[in-house]
UniProtKB/TrEMBL annotation:
Gene3D superfamilies: 1.10.3730.20. The keyword Iron does not apply. It is found in: Cell membrane. Its main location: membrane. It comes from Marinococcus halophilus. It is a multi-pass membrane protein. Belongs to the EamA transporter family. The chain crosses the membrane at residues 5-24, 30-52, 64-85, 91-111, 118-136, 148-168, 180-203, 215-233, 245-265, 271-289. Keywords: Cell membrane, Membrane, Transmembrane, Transmembrane helix. Residues 3-135, 151-287 form the EamA domain. This is EamA domain-containing protein. It comes from the Bacteria. GO terms for cellular component: plasma membrane.
Length: 303
């Protein structure tokens, strides 16, 4: 029961990441991402510094895989989300985020040489169709007439980042101590974002911080989705397995839609509800069973 409770809280924390990110989108995206990671880093230091120091040679020996994990999963994934929230609704972001498992499975067919079952191909098609349905507000057959929202396009970067990160986790995460690698990746991301936030402030000006309003929001982003949600999710995966745990994340659009209507005053259209249901159904099909490996001698040809 404890694992299921932790997963429910993870869904609420990640939904809050989107809703709070939308609520403070008067701050530019690199600024939000930088302070979120800085707060998360300070929270992780007490738990991770000893294991990070003991494994310092391991981190150096595997610096390239570590860099890949860092930039895709920690540095730029949420930066893309906060960038998208400058232009599109939190509902759209949550639905587009939900297609990540389907895209990850699709990339695995090429990178990890895994072969999808027919039901998984149907799930991939459903997931992408549902995402397009939401983005186009149900006008799926008017795609050539669509005025594309920049935020929906930016979310492609977030989906790509986390899909690549998920595949890299399968290959490389076992090399590092869990708390130590979280500390190193978060700290490295803070350093990586310094030139980006500097350029952002030079171009847009230093934002005016309303500490009474924005500081609690940034504290939430750093403490809950940036730190506690990761701890809860990792522990739940240890107890239930990755496949069962990931299914809970399909409820992210439901919680986010409810929060967007009640808190942010967004309009919930039937098209978005239908699209979200299609995406969830597609993801459930895509994550059914394990993809088959291509047998030796019959490996998939590269085009």
């Amino acid at each position: 029961m404890a694992a299921y409770f932790m997963l429910i809280m993870v869904v609420f924390f990640y939904s809050g990441n989107i809703l709070v990110g939308k609520a403070i989108n008067d701050l530019p995206p690199f600024t939000i991402a930088f302070f979120r990671l800085l707060i998360a880093f300070l929270c992780i230091v007490p738990l991770g510094w000893k294991s990070a120091w003991r494994a310092r040679n391991v981190f150096w020996d595997h610096k390239l895989p570590l860099l890949l994990l860092t930039v895709t999963g920690v540095t730029f994934f949420n930066t893309f989300i906060y960038g998208a929230l400058q232009f599109t609704s939190s509902t759209n972001v949550s639905v587009l985020e939900t297609i990540i498992p389907a895209v990850t499975v699709l990339l695995s067919t090429y990178i990890l040489k895994e072969r999808l079952r027919y039901i998984q191909w149907i799930g991939v098609v459903l997931s992408i169709t549902g995402a397009l349905w939401v983005v186009m507000n149900g006008r799926l057959f008017a795609i050539t007439e669509m005025n594309w929202n920049a935020g929906d396009g930016i979310m492609i970067g977030a989906v790509a980042c986390w899909s690549i990160y998920s595949i890299a986790v399968k290959r490389y995460m076992h090399l590092f101590p869990p708390y130590g690698v979280l500390l190193v990746m978060t700290g490295a991301s803070v350093v990586i974002l310094v030139p980006f936030i500097t350029m952002e402030w030079l171009l847009l000006g230093v934002p005016s911080f309303a500490l009474g309003e924005q500081l609690p929001s940034l504290m939430y982003l750093g403490l809950f989705p940036g730190f506690i949600a990761l701890l809860f999710y990792n522990r739940a995966v240890d107890q239930l397995g990755a496949s069962k745990a990931s299914v809970f994340l399909n409820f992210l659009p439901v919680v986010t839609m409810a929060g967007a209507v009640l808190w942010l005053g967004e309009t919930l259209t039937p098209a978005k509800v239908i699209g979200a249901l299609i995406v969830i159904a597609g993801v459930l099909l895509t994550t059914q069973g394990r993809p088959k490996r291509f047998p030796e001698g019959k490996k998939k040809r590269r085009l």
